[in-house]
Structures are given as structure tokens and as C-alpha cells.
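Support request, please re-run this one:
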Amino acid sequence: MSPLVNLLLNENMKIYQRLRTWLLIIGLVVTTVCFLIAQQYSVKPTQVADANWQINMQKQIQNDTLQLNNMNRGPEWKAHVTSRINVNQYHIDHNIPPTEETLWGNMLNASSLMIVLTLMTVIIAADSVAGEFTDGTIKLLLIRPSSRSKILLSKYISAFTFSILLFILLFATAFLVSGLLHGFKDISAPYVYASSDTIAHETSIVKHAISTYLYQGIQMVLVVTMAFMISTISRSSSIAIALSIGIMFAGTSIVGFLSQYNWAKYYLFENTDLTQYLNGAPNIAGMTLAFSVKVIIGYFIIFNICSWLVFRKKDVTA
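Re-run finished. Output below.
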């Protein structure tokens, strides 16, 4: 292959990578804006027939109480409905309007988009190293004077930096759009939630929203690190991406099933969702925030060591 053809291929690859990055950024912004606008115009239980929110909450309490008296779908369902009753009653007793129609209430709704952000960063991380093998550029990369460890570290830092950029972009977009929809106020609005014992509690909605984003950000970092490790093992970017996404969704989907076993507290995805501690309702009884942080650090170290060991010895001539 002539030098000119190689040059053209390299330039086309750079253009493709830039285009993919911008498409992900634009896609995240558009998704966030559309999601928040849809939330704004959806009918909520406290807005039915434009009635007073206390009246609608009282109706919801009556309906939930009727369900508890006439239905039995298991202890988890009973705890969920009881918690909702206690939260609504707390709102009424303390004259606290629902937080859905506030800036920070909307920010909490937008935090569910962290799964979209994580998916985007997983694609980038999974393609980071495996993509070099797929494109056949790994040899060109390794003939440079930098060691394999430095090359691997630079790729990990790039993937990590991109994930942080998307995280900041999501938070900033959600804040601006929510502010435009509801006004930049209600900073002192309280947030009411029910703990695992179904008792209602009150906290600062700003503190709760920011903590939710930060805790989910930690989950994103660990999942990205796992995807990066898979990328160093695989020689195909398609397989690395598919495997990383599959593990992410399959791993989180069985969390509820495994929570009945005490040994499952060492399972990765039982610990990555740190927001379970914001409401005082851990997946497994006895789990604490400090314990989950230790488990996360342990997996983080293992993933990085595996990435380094595999890439340092990997045969690039195969």
C-alpha cells in the first residue's frame, strides 16, 4: 500500500473519529432537551384536572390505601406503596408542594439519562484499544518511543476525560433547560423521601440532586473502566462494544434477583448504584456506603491491573 493511500486512510479515520465524537455530544444534548420538555408537558398525579395538589395527593393516598387493603403482591410491593403513602402524607402535613415542577426536581428527573451517558462512554472506552487492532493501526502506535504502559494510560485518560466531559454537559444542559422551564429559584425547596423502613424524611433537594449525579458518576467511571479492560482483551472493536454493553445491562438487570442472597453484596452491580444510600434503602440489608466504596475501589484496581497485564504482553503480530 502506497504512502499516499496510508495518509488518506489515516486522515479519513481522524475525520470519522471527530464526527463520531460530535454526534455523541449533540445526541446527548438533544436527548436531554427533548426528555425535559416531554416531562414538562406530561400529566402528573398532582396536576390531574388542574386541582389543588393537596387534593390530588389525598386521592392518591386513598387509592393506595384501598390497594393495600384489597391486594397483596408481596412484601416489596407493600413496602413501595406504604412508602408512597407516607411521603404524600408528609407533603400534606407539612404543606410541602411536590418538587416535580421545580428546577431541581427536573434535575432529578434528568438524572435518569445517566444510563444514556454511560452507554455512550462505554462505546468509546470499548473501542479505545480494540479499535486499534480492528483498524490495523496498533503496530504504528507501538513503534513510537513511548512504552506500552504510557500508551495504555493515555488511552484510559482520554476515555475517562471524555466521560467527564459528557457528565458535565448533561448536568449543565439539564440545569439550563430546567431553569428556563421553571425559573432559577426554589433552591431552598425540601425533598421528601421514604427510607427502607417506609418512614418519610426530609432533606435539601439541591444536596440530594447533586449527590445523585455524583453517585451515578462513580458508577459510570467503574463501568467505563470495565469496558476499557474488555477493550484491551479483545481484538475486535465490535465484539468489545457488544460485550461491554451486554455485561452492563445484564449485570444490572439481575441485581434485584441476587439481592436475596447475602453473598451478593460482593457482586459488582449490587454496589455501583450508590444512590441506594441516599434514600437509606440498600439493596441488601447490612450494606453501607463505606462497604460499597471499598468494593468499588477493589474492582477498579482489579480492572486496571488486568488491562495493564494483558496489554503489556499482548501479541500485536497475530
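Residues 75 and 173 are 39 Å apart (CA to CA). Strands lie at 190-194, 200-204.
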